[in-house]
From TrEMBL, chain A:
Pfam families: DUF1523. It comes from Histidinibacterium lentulum. Keywords: Membrane, Transmembrane, Transmembrane helix. The chain crosses the membrane at residues 159-177. The keyword Transmembrane helix applies. This is DUF1523 family protein.
From TrEMBL, chain B:
It comes from the Bacteria. The lineage of its organism: Bacteria, Pseudomonadati, Pseudomonadota, Alphaproteobacteria, Rhodobacterales. The chain crosses the membrane at residues 6-24, 67-86. This is Cation/multidrug efflux pump. Keywords: Membrane, Transmembrane, Transmembrane helix. It comes from Histidinibacterium lentulum.
Length: 223, 87
């Protein structure tokens, strides 16, 4: 029983961590190589890794997808360790009103910015690309770029303030929910359980009493 | 349509939060009143009940209770801020 509970807890934590890793913004230092638009036919498998059609548009089976081709600085272990260069392709989609809650409606403007900041390897212009999501090659899934800003240089290390705030908020929410649950248990559930326990005790005592009376009546037939 | 969906989801979730937090806050207040009285009781059980009822009536009209409405205000401000920063 304890192992099952432990396995469930670990599974839950892993799923939560993966979800947060997918949804929270990450910042890459990259050099934009070019932009392009490809037509996409999403299947049921990779559909969940894409947002919907541009805000205000209609959802159809197939649509164009804006892509930003870059060369970025490779990162490991949540960005603590830096590696060499690596190509990376970002998609550039409106997240709209729903999920994930970035409320991004300016994909076209972002595409224009990306075009503006395109540079060559001879004369590189480094930028910080804020994005969320994963690159999954065997499903043709791209991370979604949220914003682009100038980077001071290729070795710049952005501090993930948003992630720190969100994680601190989640921890605070967790403690708050726990305090709420403890209060609910102390003030509402325990009194109910006590009352029920009392009633059960009384009922058992009554049954004992009746059985005692019956036994005494039986005994009165002896001798 | 998406906007309507967001509003509906937000309204439902925030209302659940609002109800939970108000119940929690009321419960904490009542517990603290009981503890205050039990630390220095001045009278019988009736006086204790009156003291607690009075304290709860004060709470019902307090600023603290109205502050729980921030549950609705903060997410809307947050969404506005995110929209401003991202777009």
């Amino acid at each position: 029983m304890r192992n099952i509970r432990r396995a469930l807890r670990i599974t839950f934590l892993v799923v939560l961590a993966l979800f947060l890793h997918y949804v929270l913004p990450q910042q890459d230092v990259a050099r934009i190589v070019g932009t392009e638009i490809i037509r996409t036919d999403l299947s049921g498998v990779n559909r969940i890794f894409y947002a919907q059609a541009d805000a205000g548009g209609q959802q159809l089976d197939t649509r164009d997808l804006r892509l930003i081709n870059t060369v970025r600085k490779r990162t490991y272990l949540l960005g603590f360790v830096r590696g060499g260069d690596q190509t990376m392709v970002y998609r550039n989609e409106d997240t709209g009103w729903i999920y994930p809650p970035y409320f991004k409606f300016d994909s076209s403007d972002l595409q224009a910015e990306a075009n503006d900041m395109t540079s060559t390897s001879a004369n590189p212009e480094w930028v910080v690309i804020t994005h969320y999501g994963w690159r999954i090659r065997w499903l043709t899934v791209f991370p979604n770029a949220i914003s682009i800003r100038e980077a001071p240089g290729p070795d710049y290390r952005p501090i993930p303030w948003v992630n720190l705030l969100v994680l601190a908020g989640l921890v605070a929410l967790g403690f708050f929910l726990r305090a709420m649950w403890a209060q609910f248990r102390e003030r509402t559930l325990d009194p109910i359980a006590d009352a029920a326990g009392d009633r059960i005790d009384r009922a058992q005592a009554g049954a004992q009493e009746r059985r005692g009376r019956f036994r005494r009546w039986l005994d009165s037939w002896k001798s | 349509m998406q906007f309507v969906r967001l509003i509906v989801i937000l309204a439902v979730v925030l209302t659940v939060f609002y109800v939970c937090i108000s119940l929690y806050s009321r419960s904490v207040r009542r517990e603290r009143l009981e503890e205050t009285w039990d630390a220095a009781p001045q009278g019988d059980a009736g006086a204790r009940r009156r003291f607690i009822e009075q304290g709860m009536a004060d709470y019902e009209s307090s600023l603290r209770k109205r502050l729980i409405l921030l549950v609705y205000v903060i997410p809307i401000c947050l969404i506005s801020l995110i929209m401003y920063l991202v777009n």
